[in-house]
Every structure is written in C-alpha cells, then in structure tokens.
Amino acid sequence: MSDSKFSRRQIVAAAGAVPLAAGATRALAQQAKGTPLAGDFALPDPPGERMRWAVVGLGNFAVGEVIPGIRQSRHARMTAFVSGSPAKQADLGARYGVERFYNYADFDRIADDPEIDCVYIVLPVGLHAEYTIRALRAGKHVLCEKPMASTSAECEAMIAAATAANRQLGVAYRIHFEPTNLRAKQLIEAGELGDLRFISCDHGFNANPDWPPHVWRLQKDLAGGGSMYDIGIYGLNTSLMMIGDDGPAEVSATYSYPKDDPRFREVEGGIDFRLRTRKGLTISGSSSYCWSPYISSQRYMGSQASLFMKPATTYDENHIVLEGNGPQRTIGAGDPWGQFAAQIDAFSLAARANRAHRTPGEMGLRDIRIIEAMYRSADSGGATLAL
Ligand code: NDP
After folding, report:
1. Are 360 and 171 in contact (CB under 8 A)?
2. CA 241 to centroid of ligand 1, rounded, Å
C-alpha cells in the first residue's frame, strides 16, 4: 500500500466526510472520459431517505475503510456502532456523529431499533455466521465481510436465515465495485484479448503474529482457514468474476509453506491451486502468509493480447498493463478508493428494493466450497477433485 492511502484516510477522517459534490464531479469527469462507473452515481438521497447502517466490529478495516466508505456513499448513512469497546464507540461516534451504541451481549436489541436497516459485519471470520444470523433474525439486511464464514455449512445457515427473514445477504467482495477491475472485465468481455487462454492470480503478505489483526488470522476458531481464506480469496473471486458465465469444474491444490514455521500450527500458511473451468480454462493461483512485500497480482493471457494487473486488488494503486494488439498501454480506470462507497451504495439500493446484491451470499458459499475442496485436495496430496 502506498503512503497516499494513509494521507487520504487521514484527510477523510479529519474532514469527517468528503463533500458529496466532489464524488458527483468525479463521476461526471469519468463519464466524460468514457470510463465505466463502479457504482451508482445518481444524485444522492436526502439524508432522511438513506438506508441506515450499523457497523459491527470497530477494527482495522472498519475504521480505515468501511466507515469512511459509508460516509462517502450517496444512499447510506451510519446510525449505530456495535463493539466491545465503549472507548472506540465514543471516539468514532464523536467523529462521525453516531450516537447509537450496542455491544455483543445486547446486540439482539437492534431488532427494536427502527434507525437500523442494514448491518455490516466486520468481525473475525469465526464470528461472521453468528452475528449475521442474529442480525437477519432481528429483521436487518446484512453485508458480511469476506470470507463469508468458517465453513460451507455456516454459509448455508446464513443463506437460510436470510430467506426466512426475507432480507438481503451480501458478501463484501469490493472488487466487483472497483473501477479498474471493472474496466479489465469490460476489456475481456469485449474480446480485446482474443480468446482468454489462462488466468493466474497471486496474493500474499507476511503474517505478523504479534499484530492484533493478524493474531486472530492465525487461530482456526476465529479465522476459519489460513492464507487462502483471508487473502487468496481475492484472486479466486476476482478470477471468477472475470469469466462471466463460465465456472469452476475441478480443482487441485498443494500446501506451500515451511511446516516448521510456528505461526502455522492451526491454519495453512500458503497454498498453490489450479482450477479448471467448465469451458476448459485454467486458473492457476497461490496465496501466502509468508511473502514480502504484500503481493496482489492478476494476469489474464489471451490469444491476441494479455492483461497484467499488479497491484490488482488493493485500495488505491490498481492498474492494467495491456500488451499485444498494438503498443503497450497502461490503464487506470478510476479512483480505487471509490470501491467502498460504491459497494455500500449498491447494497443499500438492493436492500431498499429487497432484491439480490451483486455479490450475494450464494457467491460467498460457492467460494468457501471451492476452498474447502482445495484443502481436501491438498490433504490428499494434490488430487484433482470435481466441484
Ligand atoms: P481487526 O482485528 O482489526 O478487527 C476485528 C474487530 O472485531 C476487533 O477490532 C473487535 O472490534 C472485533 N472483535 C470482536 N470479537 C473479537 C475477537 N474475539 N477477536 C478479535 N476481534 C474481535 O480485523 P480486520 O479489521 O483486519 O478484519 C475484520 C474483517 O474484515 C475480517 O472479516 C476480514 O476478513 C475483513 N477484511 C476485509 C478486507 C477487504 O479488503 N475486504 C480487508 C481487511 C479485512 P471491537 O473492539 O470494536 O469489538
């Protein structure tokens, strides 16, 4: 991540909110350049008509990205925080004008709070299913962070709870709202690469066993799985996003980390995998908690041109290098920071209409089933398994 992300975060936090007019101006500028828009850039709703959001878990990602994203959105506003820390609630409440606070014990009281329409679950993975189901039973729509849950059985229970409550359940796959990835998808679908022949995706970083947000990532009960659950899932989900109506048919995988590394007693530190789609395309990927620096790379090889993205799935520097079909081109299709607000806006509009979000619970379930198959394959020495 670049320094620019932190300066932008600081600016957003200090200012409290980015003026809505700035987003609209940027959207118009993007339209003028002919680039695709990541979200719904219609006029903002008046504050009284925006969907009202509670954020559950005030950790690193919630404070750094989710909360500023909600403040930048056009169809949402924050009304409540759920946290085990009254001090964080007081601090963030003062900064963002939020006055309704709940903790994990009294969470179910949100059922009686008409000032909450949507709940954003930003907790460790092992808690996603419990709090998602409790929120759905309280009658709220839920956007849950990735990966959806610890197991496919939990994902199925979450989907069943959404159906029973007649509420929407989305998984926060932000790349589906990131302008440069949407541009890449548009280029692939327009045939710029010719026939797509091969995809590779590599994501990883070096897990720090002493840093609180990484501590729970190394504990199976809170993390669900290892690097593939946390970081490899970006490559998996982004690759599948790019191939449209094609889908995975079989998978094989092997573990790839030092077995004597004390960080990885409970979860895997790295995995290499190979997916074959129904149409015969290969997606080759890797994820790791043992790499430096932070790596986020996607490559799409076609019969006429190839598209490289590094970084591919970050918050502010994603870009495309397109080779073949003429001179090499570098494409950055818009401000990646906008993906957070665009995702919130899209879910707000879906919830208001009570229709499925672009990245629904079923997509989260699909990905967890694939990762579970990767683990089964790796456990059996790399066998190819049908999906
Ligand atoms: P953090 O550890 O920074 O935050 C998690 C928060 O959950 C804590 O601060 C705490 O908030 C709350 N919490 C409740 N119970 C526990 C517990 N037993 N142990 C630890 N925390 C607990 O993690 P992240 O912010 O990095 O990750 C949170 C979620 O966001 C995860 O699902 C992760 O996968 C996802 N994420 C998504 C990203 C993306 O790009 N989409 C990027 C990074 C993370 P409090 O003190 O308020 O109770």
Report:
1. yes
2. 25
For residue 250, give the amino acid letter: E
| Cα radius of gyration (the chain) | 20
360 in contact with ligand 1, CB cutoff 6 A:
no
Question: What's the predicted TM-score (pTM) here?
Answer: 0.91
What digits encode the pLDDT tens for the residues 94-108? 999 999 999 999 999
Q: What is the pLDDT of residues 183-208, one digit of tens each?
A: 999 999 999 999 999 999 999 999 99
Active site residue 185: no
Fold of 179-335+359-386: Dihydrodipicolinate Reductase; domain 2 (3.30.360)
Is the torsion defined by CA of 231, 234, 239, 243 positive or negative?
positive
Q: How far apart are CA 245 and CA 240, in angstroms?
A: 9
> Domain 47-175's class?
alpha beta
Token couple for 130: 């419990």
- Tokens representing 201 are 């995706």
Residues of the chain with CATH 3.40.50.720: 47-175
